[in-house]
Specification:
Number of strands of chain A: 2
Radius of gyration of chain B: 24 Å
Number of domains of chain A: 2
Structural class of chain B: alpha+beta
CATH topology of chain B: Alpha-Beta Plaits
Structural class of chain A: mainly alpha
Number of domains of chain B: 1
Strand content of chain A: under 5%
Number of strands of chain B: 11
CATH class of chain B: Alpha Beta
Helix content of chain B: 25-40%
CATH architecture of chain B: 2-Layer Sandwich
Number of helices of chain A: 6
Radius of gyration of chain A: 23 Å
Number of helices of chain B: 9
Oligomer: heterodimer
Helix content of chain A: 40-55%
Shape of chain A: elongated
Largest sheet of chain B: 4 strands, mixed
Chain lengths: 134, 262
């Protein structure tokens, strides 16, 4: 083999770089995100009214698309009220509807977004609810 | 497997037809579901075209102006940038007669008019030049009520609209506006803006949607009159029909929706 020394050193460096994340985290998985929906505002509601605008599964999967559509409907079309699949009405607003119940941005939004390394720019403009340090 | 030319064309034709049919069926279904899901707020105020009349005779003291300005700037979290006047953000402000109505000032104009500060805001033009130049349609005229709106999500901060607006009604966020807001006084119901977007008066679209009059109109105690200019029975039309009114730079053909009376 020509240049065996260089190739072997190169391979070792490559293997080291590839293995680094696994070695660094000690071979353990990072803790799974655990978003909380136990804000005082939600707990105040009677059991059968503790529902989001759509089903939990739908919100988990599609909340970003729903928020995008809400934004366009409100700002561009001037349509401010949302009728969900159960026939209930909601004012379409991140600050005044979503975050009134989910007043725990850190445990509700950031928990998963940090885990998945997505940084939505919502809070550059929208004002996050005031949270007490716990 | 080999495929001859005739075979290939047949297959391609059939799959195109199937594809088009499928797409239109899915699309039709989708838009119908969505259309049934939204509606305007039931309590929203409606108009064909909103307009404002500024009754200058009712602005007597500095306090009268400041009340309107404060109400607006508080309701919309407008930052108070004072360290560099070029970075100032304004939605509604005072301007001298010669700056507000250039070309109409003459030598012998009464001193009190010359020095009278006029209350200036976005004119919500019927033919808005800012909308025409916006490359992303971030600023647009709402078809339903003629409000010239800003969609902050789309604004890329190119500032074409600021160059196009003949009234200087637009402000650019040269820096993050948050540090210039008093966290005690911010309105938690309305967003702030971010660095790199253009902002201006929106005729309080968010208040109209809740059935409320614009913040400045509410605070003006009758000096600002707001209503539907296409409705002959509205208050603005009654005022405009009975008193002499004028607009800023009418020669430009932008057809402003803000009128001034004495």
């Amino acid at each position: 083999m020509y240049n065996a020394g260089k190739i072997i050193i190169g391979l070792l460096i490559f293997a080291g770089l590839v293995m680094f994340p696994f070695v660094y985290s000690g071979g353990k998985a990072t803790a799974k995100p655990d978003p909380k929906v136990d804000t005082p505002e939600i707990l105040k509601l009677p059991e059968n009214e503790r529902k989001c605008v759509e089903s939990k599964a739908y919100m988990k999967r599609e909340h970003m698309k729903l928020l995008n559509e809400w934004r366009d409907w409100v700002v561009r079309d001037g349509q401010g009220t949302y009728l969900n699949t159960e026939g209930k009405h909601f004012t379409m607003s991140l600050q005044n509807t979503c975050m009134k119940c989910h007043s725990n941005k850190k445990k509700f939004c950031d928990e998963c977004h940090n885990y998945a390394a997505v940084a939505p720019y919502c809070w550059d403009c929208h004002i996050a609810p005031k949270e007490k340090e716990s | 497997m080999s495929i001859d030319r005739r075979e290939f064309l047949k297959l391609a034709g059939i799959s195109t037809i199937l594809g088009m049919g499928g797409a239109s069926a899915v699309h039709g279904l989708r838009s119908r579901v969505e259309a049934s899901q939204i509606m305007p707020n039931p309590e929203a105020l409606k108009a064909k075209r909103w307009a404002m009349v500024v009754d200058m005779s009712k602005f007597k003291t500095a306090e009268d102006y400041q009340r309107c300005i404060d109400a607006c700037h508080h309701a919309h979290n407008v930052p108070n940038v004072t360290d560099n006047l070029k970075h100032e953000v304004k939605w509604i402000w005072e301007e001298t007669y010669e700056h507000a109505f250039p070309g109409t000032e003459d030598e012998y104009l009464a001193e009190e008019i010359k020095e009278l500060p006029f209350l200036i805001l976005c004119n919500h033009c019927d033919n808005p030049p800012c909308v025409r130049v916006c490359p992303t349609k971030a600023t647009f005229k709402r078809k339903s009520d003629g409000i010239v709106m800003m969609d902050m999500h789309r604004c890329i901060g190119c500032r074409f609209c600021m160059a196009a607006c003949p009234y200087g009604a637009r402000s650019f966020n040269y820096k993050n506006p948050r540090p210039f807001l008093d966290p005690e006084k911010e309105n938690p119901e309305f967003p702030t803006r971010t660095k790199g977007v253009v902002e201006k008066c929106t005729f309080c679209y968010e208040r109209l949607a809740k059935g409320q009059m614009p913040a400045c109109v509410e605070a003006s105690s009758g000096a600002l009159i707001f209503g539907d200019i296409e409705d002959p029975n509205s208050e603005v039309r009654k005022v405009l029909g009975s008193r002499y009114s004028f607009r800023r730079k009418p020669e430009l053909g932008t057809r402003p929706s803000v009128y001034y009376i004495f």
